[in-house]
Design goal:
Homotetramer; dimer of dimers. Its main location: cytoplasm. InterPro entries: Aldolase_TIM (IPR013785), DapA (IPR005263), DapA-like (IPR002220), Schiff_base-form_aldolases_AS (IPR020625). The chain is built from 13 helices and 8 strands. By secondary structure, the protein is of the alpha/beta class. It has one domain: Alpha-Beta Barrel (TIM Barrel), CATH 3.20.20. The chain has an 8-stranded parallel β-sheet with strand order 7-6-5-4-3-2-1-8. β2 (40-43), α2 (55-69) and β3 (75-78) form a beta-alpha-beta unit. α6 runs parallel beside α7. The N and C termini lie far apart (37 Å).
């Protein structure tokens, strides 16, 4: 599972002003990321606004990404939900399932299952597919935390559960995951602003939002952290640390899409219920990026 080391990117789904999928912008984004040296792409996660895409749009966009990537980097597909049986049934609707390298599956949102419920949910998903599964713990969105003990039990029991994107922001919890994980189980950061300290305790990399816009810089941060070059890693961390919270200040992916528009990669259009960021925040982002010494040309 070494293909899931380093920098994964939770890629946005570019939309035109009429909210149809912008495939030209999609291609431009993919080439920007691959040229920037990212290690793999995550399609139709939260940042990809998967909740706003219907079945046909999901299949078409996934097919497009796989075709455009053309085996240059691995592709991970976001597939989560809070109805376990429906989630399993929907596996049959993923036309390109055989071509994806892994599934990223978030812990069930809204219903707030207990740890037994979370375990049984992922047990059922793992038994329903032979695809590698990366778990996703993001309490800020799901409303419940997946305890380290639950993750580790799943990792030990099911060979196709190969890693976790840990976005609890809890360094103590991540420490327990890294310390007690089975061999080859990946612990991946889901917090761009915490990835440097998380790598210091042994995280395998990150699935990033900000890398949509600045893949080379974020890749340099991760590479420096992996090699123990903390001076270089801190340089990139401090350069990006004031930008990262602004990307989420008025909702995601509105912030990162605004930056991608500044870069001329795709438009900033989002689908409801997400709304575009305010002019005030856009101006603040522009100033902060400039103050960090990053050119938008």
């Amino acid at each position: 599972m070494d293909k899931f080391n380093g920098v994964g990117v939770a890629i946005v789904t570019p939309f035109k002003q009429d909210t149809s999928i912008d495939y030209k912008g999609f291609e431009k984004l993919i080439e920007h990321l691959i040229a920037g040296g990212v290690d793999y792409l995550v399609v139709q996660g939260t940042t990809g606004e998967a909740a706003t895409l219907n079945r046909e749009q999901k299949n078409n966009s996934l097919d497009f990404v796989i075709e455009t990537v053309n085996n240059r980097v691995p592709v991970v597909y976001g597939h989560g939900g809070n109805n376990t049986s429906a989630l399993i049934d929907q596996l049959a609707d993923i036309d390109s399932l055989a071509k994806v390298d892994a599934l990223l599956s978030a812990s069930p949102a809204y219903v707030k299952p207990n740890q037994e419920g979370i375990y049984r949910h992922f047990e059922a998903v793992a038994k329903a597919t032979d695809k590698p599964i990366i778990l996703y713990n993001v309490p800020g969105r799901t409303g419940s935390n997946m305890a380290a003990s639950t993750t580790l039990s799943l990792a030990r029991e099911f060979s196709n559960i190969v890693g976790i994107k840990e976005a609890s922001g809890d360094l103590a919890q991540m420490t327990q995951l890294i310390k007690n994980r089975p061999e080859n189980f990946k612990v991946i950061s889901g917090d761009d602003d915490l990835v440097l300290p998380q790598m210091a305790i042994g995280a395998d990399g990150v699935i990033s939002v900000i890398a949509n816009a600045f893949p080379k810089r974020f890749k340099s941060l991760i590479e420096a952290g992996k090699s123990g070059d903390l001076e270089t890693a801190r340089k990139y961390h401090y350069q990006l640390c004031d930008i990262i919270p602004l990307l989420f200040k008025e909702g995601s992916p509105s912030g990162i899409k605004a930056v991608l528009e500044m870069l001329g990669i795709c438009e900033s259009t989002v689908r409801l219920p997400v709304a575009p960021i305010s002019k005030e925040l856009r101006d603040e982002l522009y100033r902060t990026i400039g103050n960090a010494g990053i050119s938008l040309d």
